[in-house]
Amino acid sequence: MALNRMLKDLQRGLLVSPLHEQYLKRSQGDVVLSEETLRFVVSQLQEGDRDRRFTFSASGRGGCLRQQLFGYLGTRGDKSYTSDQAATFIHGSWTHLKWQAMGLDAGWLAQVEVPCRIDDYQVTGTIDGILNPTVARAGWELKSINSRGFRRACEDGPEVKHLLQIHSYMLATGINTWSLIYECKDDQSWREWVVHWDDEFGQELIGELETLKHHREERELPKILDDCLHHEGTRYRQCPFKDICLETGSWPQTKNGIRLKHSPSITR
User: Fold this and answer.
1) Span 129-149, mean pLDDT?
2) Is residue 182 part of a domain?
């Protein structure tokens, strides 16, 4: 690693970049994992997705409130993926596993796949990692993103929804410093930001969680997004509940995650 880059990283207060650059240079492109790290990798490959019913996911912050409530109720949506979409999700999972394995072996990660929760709002999440306390009292989050999104992040900063997700982890753990790394899935270039607790983001987060709590307690759904009413936009196209959402006007009646037929419909 070039000395001037290391100095710039340290001057910017980056937590992971200088250590990870050193690790990559030592590896010379040939990573040999310890037995302990290998056991972690195997355990992750054998573990299925967690049951997310009756909780709100920390990674859902900033998303559609109706979608979050359908997910909370365990409503069965359309979660079928094209081969390209499936490949994208698998790539993201392996990218996380790659970084976690290297972070553990490099010593800058102390814990990985750390569960957390905010009981007052029924929020749960899994933190990508907690840094070694010799580095900093800080958490760590990785995002795999395409080249267009990566360029936008480098120019404008991390996405708001990712900052809200991190603030959820901060609220759950009391750890108010976070290393956030974006890796470009097209060429594996990456960049780190150090995120500290921000009152404005904290207020926005609490506002969203309070709104979800209100809707849950009152058993009422938020309004449908305008784009969804017109069958437009990325959020509509990617939503697994888009058909159910447009058919449902009031709190959906469910049993074991299956929507019952007598849920009232809306008029469009």
Assistant:
1) 97
2) yes
Residue 103 has pLDDT above 90, yes or no: yes
Structure letter (DSSP) for residue 248 = -
CA-to-CA dists, residue 2 to 26, 45, 76, 187, angstroms: 13, 35, 51, 20
Q: Is the pLDDT of residue 2 over 60?
A: no
Count of domains in the chain? 1
Could you report the per-residue pLDDT of 112-122, keeping only the tens digit for each?
999 999 999 99
Closest residue by Cα to residue 154 from 197, 192, 201, 185: 192
Query: Are the C-beta atoms of residues 167 and 198 closer than 8 Å to each other?
Result: yes
What pTM, to 2 d.p., does this model score?
Answer: 0.88
For residue 147, what is the domain's CATH number? 3.90.320
Q: What is the mean pLDDT of the chain?
A: 88
- pLDDT confidence bin for 179, thresholds 50/70/90: very high
Q: How many CB atoms lie within 10 A of CB 245?
A: 24
User: Could you tell me the residue range of the domain that residue 131 belongs to?
Assistant: 59-259
Closest CA to 240 of 75, 63, 92: 75
Tokens of residue 195, six digits:
């995120």
- 111: pLDDT confidence band, cut at 50, 70 and 90? very high
In a domain, 14, yes or no: no
178 vs 180: CA distance, rounded Å: 6
Q: Name the burial class of residue 110, with classes exposed (0-12), middle (13-18) and buried (19+) by CB atoms within 10 angstroms of its CB.
A: middle
Alpha helical stretches, state H, the chain: 3-11, 17-27, 35-45, 65-72, 83-106, 147-156, 160-173, 199-218, 226-229, 234-238, 242-247
Instruction: Report the SS3 class of residue 222.
Output: coil
In a domain, 267, yes or no: no
